[in-house]
Amino acid sequence: MNRHSRFTRLLVAYSAGVSLVALPACSTAQTAAPSSSTATAQSISAAEKAEGAKAHPQLLAEFGGAETGPQASYVEGIGKNISVQSGLSNARGDFTVTLLNSSVNNAFAIPGGYVYTTRQLVALMNNEAELAGVLGHEVGHVAARHAAKRQSQATRNSILGVLGSVLSGVLLGNSQIGQVLQRGLLQGSQLLTLQYSRNQELEADRLGITYLKRAGYDPRAMSTVLRSLAAQNALDARLMGTQNQVPAWASTHPDPASRVTTALNYAGANSTGLTNRDTFLSRISGLTYGDDPRQGIVEGRNFTHPDLRLAFQSPNGFYMLNGTRAVTISGQSGKGQFTTAAYNGDLDAYVRAAFAGLTEANQPQINPGSISRTTVNGIPAAYATSRVNNGSSQVDVTVFAYQFDATHAYHFVTITQAGSANVFSSMYSSMRRISANEASAVRPRKLSVITASAGDTVNSLANRMAYTDAKLDRFLVLNGLTASSRIVAGQKIKLVTY
User: Fold this and answer.
1) What span, in angstroms and rounded, lies between the C-alpha atoms of 10 and 348?
2) What is the pLDDT of the chain when averaged over all its residues?
3) Could you tell me if 340 and 416 are in contact, meaning their C-beta atoms sit under 8 angstroms apart?
């Protein structure tokens, strides 16, 4: 993969698939065939397999691709073990379980036996039972046919339609621009999967707990992983500022905090079973944590891409989500994304093509009018703003493009209420080239599992976290600990290091 292929056009569908090798079970948990009580779960149909196979490569493209190596193989084995407890199939080979190279906390499944979790969510977990519980929860959504129950007529026969259509009216209504930007401005890793209702989430929790029991795991793991996810969400909100946190519509699994007690009650507070904590921690050590530098790094308001040798800063009060094909920028007063497209040396034509790409088939094209030229920190740039009807109101859509060399250009596309396009002016003017030294200074973070020594405390270990802010908070959430927790010599602990 060349250095520019991480930023391909948003509207181009990927066609290359990823094959996963079936591996032997990696857990001592039981893999007995599901009991007859799973008979209500419909088997995977040929049509679902076909739809899943069609969606799979496109989902991989949206979520950073599939991780490979021992961590991915381990997650795959656990996922297949828990998936067969659902009654969808007794054959482990009927399930494709993928560890995604994504820095968001997410997991999902689609019909056809396809199950996914991100490396970031796996890093938040503290034992194998939690991993099995999360994957079992996602398989539970499929077994209960939750996606089918939330499909509209227009998307009933398309898995990808289900994944995207729920977003089209959230911010922008069902107007022309809203329909297009569901694939654009709202794109970005975790924003592409279906948001389920509270009742569906609770049902999937119960099914996941049932699968845990059948597989011999401690069913209380569903409650503990929900608690960790709730703590991570709260920490993210504090770090972003309460006005800048990812809104509820951006979460595919909202409100985990309210489900903790319910899940524990269903599992049974005195339940027992396997957790395989030390095995799990040893097997996931070394995972990339946070953004992959090959896709660029978000640090607060700053985005830096060492391979593309560029950097920019979002406006104050906005947050960024780094996706595979675009960086999404969101705030109360506007939405935007940064991406690229094919470039032939004509920057004006590039801007017009970017506007044309925002237009649905059989719809009038957005006319950018005249294109303005400027330079930004020595980089040739071109931009235009067009006012577009958006239901009963109007919005301003801006494309701001930069020529980095004869064959490569990059651009922002933003949307604001009419008359407010200048909210992104500081971001446009912040674009700059970075030096080779600055690029080489960008280092990936990774998850390191260490064995605590005598005298280690939560504070001493937290000081080893590879962050300049909130080291203790990040450490406690990562390990499911509290400030009063005691560290015992020989205990396995997760750290984020360079």
Assistant:
1) 19
2) 83
3) no
CA distance 217 to 212: 5
Ramachandran area for residue 110 (φ above 0: left; ψ -120 to 50: alpha; else beta): beta
Q: For 447-491, how does the pLDDT look when each residue is reduced to its tens digit (9 = 90+)?
A: 999 999 999 999 999 999 999 999 999 999 999 999 999 999 999
Question: Residue 458 in contact with residue 481, Cβ under 8 Å?
Answer: yes
Gap between the Cα atoms of 62 and 188, Å rounded: 7
Long-range Cβ contacts of 359-368 (<8 Å, 24+ apart): 359/176, 359/180, 360/176, 360/179, 360/180, 363/176, 364/176, 366/177, 366/397, 368/399
Q: Specify burial of residue 73 (Cβ count, 10 A radius: 0-12, 13-18, 19+).
A: buried
Report the distance separating Cα 332 and Cα 46, nearest Å.
44
307's CB contacts (< 8 A; 6+ apart) are 3, 6, 293, 294, 439
User: Nearest Cα to 226, choosing from 208, 240, 211?
Assistant: 208
Place of tokens 């994957």: 135
Cα–Cα distance for residue pair 33/113, rounded to 1 Å: 17
**In the 8-state DSSP scheme, what is residue 287?**
-
Architecture of domain 445-497: Roll (3.10)
Q: Which contiguous run of DSSP H or E holds residue 109?
A: strand 107-110
Q: Which of 173, 177, 174 is nearest to 366 (CA)?
A: 177
Residue type, 188: G
CA distance linking residue 92 with residue 99, whole number of Å: 16
Question: How large is the average pLDDT for residues 415-427?
Answer: 95
Nearest by Cα to 253 from 294, 184, 298, 200:
200
Single pTM value for the model: 0.80
Local confidence band at 242 (pLDDT 50, 70, 90 cut-offs): low
Q: What is the CATH number of domain 293-440?
A: 3.40.1000.10
Structure tokens at 180: 């297009």
Give the C-alpha distances (Å, rounded to integers) separating 203 from 145, 283, 491: 11, 30, 35
- Name the nearest CA neighbour of 152 among 138, 168, 135: 168
Calpha distance 6→20 (Å, rounded): 21
Distance of CA 316 to the CA centre of its chain: 23
By DSSP bridging, strand 114-118 and strand 96-100 are parallel
What is the C-alpha end-to-end distance of the chain, expressed in Å?
A: 24
Nearest of 230, 256, 53 to residue 137 by alpha carbon: 256
Every domain of the chain and the residues it spans: 36-150+194-289, 293-440, 445-497
Spatial CB neighbours of 114, under 8 Å, sequence gap ≥ 6 = 52, 55, 56, 59, 95, 96, 98
User: Cβ(487)–Cβ(456) under 8 Å?
Assistant: yes
Calculate the CA 132 to chain-centre distance. 19
